[in-house]
Each structure stands twice: as C-alpha cells, then as structure tokens.
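Checklist before submission:
- one chain only
- standard amino acids only
- sequence pasted in full

Submission:
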Amino acid sequence: MNTDKKRAEDLTVVENRKINKDYYVLKLASKTDLPKIKAGQFVELLVEDTRNAFLRRPISIYDVQPECNSFELLIQIVGEGTQLMSQLQTGDTINTMYPLGNGFQTETKSKNILLVGGGVGLAPLLYLAKKLNDKGIRPKILLGGRAENNIIEIDNFEKYGDIFISTEDGSLGEKGFVTQHSVMNESIDKIYTCGPDPMMRAVGDIAFSKNIDCEVSLENMMACGIGACLCCVTDTKEGHKCVCTDGPVFNTNELKWNIA
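Returned file contents:
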C-alpha cells in the first residue's frame, strides 16, 4: 500500500539513458511498492567510492511509473558526483532517500496553465504535466535554453502539453529569454516554473505584475534533504525556511522576491 513515508533504500538501476554529453536519464526501481510521490518532490542519492563526492546529491524526480515500482531522474553532469552516476550500469544499486520535500499544488481550478522550464529545471515539470493531464488539463509548456542543444526531451513533453521553445541565440524557437516569448502574452491563469534563479525571478515578476498565481521550485543547495544542515535556507515573508523540507516548491506570494 502506498504511503507518504520517506525511505532510504538501495534502488536498482533499470536504465541509464544518455541524452547528450551533458544530460542523462537514470531509471531506478524498488523491490516493493513505491510510496506516494508528488510532482516536484526530489531524492537524495549517495555517491560512493570517491573522496570528493561524500555528500548526497539532490535530484528532482522526472517521471514515475508506479506500476513498475520505478521512477526516473533527469540529471545534468556538473561535477564528480553526477559524472560518476552517469557511469552506472543496469543492475547496479544506489542508496536513495525519497520522496523528499513538498511538491506542486495540482489541485487547481485554473485551466490556462503555463509550465516554464530552463536547463535541468525541466526535470520536475514532466511529471507535473502528467499529473495535470490526469485532471483533464493540457498545459502550455515553455522550454528555454541558451541554444538548440540545451533544449532536450521535447518528444516526452509533447505527450502532455503544447510546446513552446525559446533560445537565447535563436537557434530553435523564438529568440530571447523565456520571459520574452510571445506565449507569455497569452491568457494564463497559473504558472509553474523551475530553472536558474534569475529566470524564475523574472517569471515571478511577470506573474506578480499580471496577478497570476505562480509556483516556483527552488534549486538551493540541499546537502541533507531533511532540514538538519540548514544550508538551503531561503527568506520568506514568514521568516527563514528550509527549501528541502518546506519546499522546494513555494508560491511566489510566500517569497520576498517582490518586496522592494
């Protein structure tokens, strides 16, 4: 039976799918039924056999296959830990704490929904789009990056939403930042976004100016994932909160982003 309880267990690598030289999708499976996983939650992976990667790595949950007791993680290679994980083979195991944090609020009356993702910030938005589909909502999905090779997994996202693309160099989709894309001028009731902090702040500013409800998935460094180390604290209107336990998803109305 599914529960909301968190776990730490050795999960088995089912697949390690390379997207390009920078990104890969790691599929992990449990020997038992998965706990309930919400869109926007994350895991902490233990990378062993290295002196420089002793902390767990926080990774957003990309997709979930409860019927197979498995889930996927979209990972960008940014250091030794993520590089080592990219070398995992089918049948290997990796110790995983999951599911962690609070996810997106999918109980919504909004119908004109926009998902905005940049870089590896796309990761939590696929499962979110899937859950919105379950509620009869097909969102608009805006994917942003510096260039065409930064826009990944389009085919997967097309299953669940109408795709819009923005690249800074104009190599794919409209040229410019996601905030400059023409879809931002369409009728929107709610925005969900994840990506680089400046991008999310800019999206949050637009949502604030247009009185659009907006949720952001913060990417603060989360070393422990359980609120013990306090290195992921963010400032909110109710004081300091741990991104790993109170977030990573926050409504922008909770944050001090729009306070001069």
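Reviewer check: The chain has a mean pLDDT of 90.
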